[in-house]
Specification:
The complex is a heterodimer of chains A (274) and B (304). Chain A contains eleven helices and no strands. Chain A has 274 residues and is an all-alpha fold. Chain A has a single domain (31-273), classed as Orthogonal Bundle (MetI-like fold), CATH 1.10.3720. In chain B, 73% of the residues lie in helices and 3% in strands. Chain B folds into two domains: 14-69, no CATH class; 79-303, MetI-like (MetI-like fold, Orthogonal Bundle), CATH 1.10.3720.10. Chain B is mainly alpha-helical and 304 residues long. Classes of the chains: A mainly alpha (274), B mainly alpha (304).
Chain lengths: 274, 304
Amino acid sequence: MNQRRSVFLITCVAFGFAFLYIPILSMVVFSFNASKLVTVWDSANSPTLKWYYSLLNNEEILDAAWISLKVAIINASGSVILGTLTGFGLSRFTNFRGRFTLNAMATAPLVMPEVITGLSLLLLFVALEQLIGWPAGRGITTMTLSHMTFSMAYVTVVVQSRLATFDTALEEAAMDLGAKPLKVFFVITLPIIFPAILSGWLLAFTLSWDDLVISSFTSGPGSSTLPMVVFSKVRLGVSPEINVLATLTITVVTLIIVGVSFWMARSNRIERAT
Amino acid sequence: MRRTPWSQRFGLSGRGLVVLLPYLWLLLFFVVPFVIVLKISFADIDLAIPPYTSLFQWDDKNVLSIKLNFNNYVFLFTNELYFKALLNSLKVALISTLICLLIGYPMSYGIARAKPATRNLLLLLVILPFWTSLLLRVYAWIGLLKANGVINNILMSLGLIHEPLAMLYTPFAMYVGIVYSYLPFLILPLYANLEKMDWQLLEAAEDLGCRPWQAFYKITLPLSRNGILAGSMLVFIPAVGEFVIPALLGGPNALMIGRILWDEFFSNRAWPVASAVAILLLLLLVPFMMWYQSIQARESAGAR
């Protein structure tokens, strides 16, 4: 490659990554700052872990985190099932009635502004409650159902793109040898797309764990999620505990993502070697 | 693409069962809600729970009367605030998309041309912030941009400025927040597109005497058109309805339609007005969503 062009490109890439990472790093650094002013470094008493202790003793945040965790886990497991079925249907059945509609319905939540999705789901739950008495009130159930509806779209995309790259010959061979379609799916297809299903689960978990807007519309009294508590705190200004929360989140996410990518890179290499 | 024998062997029943569950799910939780939003946008505000009137009324003589109330729409169209907010949202989303392209295109290009090992690491670095809470990443900018925030403190200690710059709660902060949050959405599809590019075309063009910039303009740019469009739609469409970023960084004067919908719903409890805003916003965005779908269809057809 041309020398001058590569210098230009490297500068652009470096600038872009600095833009993406400086805010994240600043939160990590200031989570150890003793000063209540957050962004003014108190060099006499810092670094300190005092905000870490105070976060871990903050009942409001811990309660909200527990609700978020429950919603995120049920959501991730449910959307993986729905998303895998959709992704499988869309990529393996090339023509069935309603394919176009299913494809449109499954991809639209990816770009739909959250305020619209949130409002429409809430109005659905209110109407359903009037009509059949279920779901009674709003809370964890309504939030989970809402999260599943937009998370499954992401799982669908991940599963579909994995299915698009693997050869159908394996499935066909198994069927030629007399395996039933259901058995082929569980013995051949599922193990091959397992990495995609795992990424889909993690993605659905994260989407739910981070969601503020749709949860705000569909939650009820006493079921505030972590983002809802964070949002109400952040609206009042910066708070040292939020920096700690951000640092913990970033650490966990980085460990999981790096771990999973290493594991996938390794299993890819094994797959190619055999 | 070769027709897979799945369809023949599974038979209609098995096939139907696989897609039936997600189909019904999306119908109930994605399509039906919009019908209800449309219905409630024609209702009137009522001091009841839920706070809107019913459209259908059975009177004693077995007559069903349907009352459609167009006042919410009339209200939206005669009140300048909503029109301004809608225009402003489109403007903000468009400018943010362009800035994302300006930063994201060279980045995607650089990543696509890096060595395979570096490429995976860089890609991981693009994806990582995307997995960390949007709310927390937007929050980080409050700490950077506020009057006694990090940027002002650095500039003052360097002696470049003597008074803190007012950056937080301005349009500038809102643009920074949107571009920052949506940049990975633009880079990923663009990178996926550029990665498939045949770079020998560029070498051939340069061998034939094309200047590098000319080759870029004539070959790379047209070939990456679908990636550019797909990435731009992934930024533009959600940005039009964005709520969190204007609410946290934009200050009280940041007129964005997503915020207006939120306030109508939560502060004014005007559910019918909020529904009418949602319907208008949806009508505005549906053409872009359809465009996005057709680009996606073209991309996956091209990949086969």
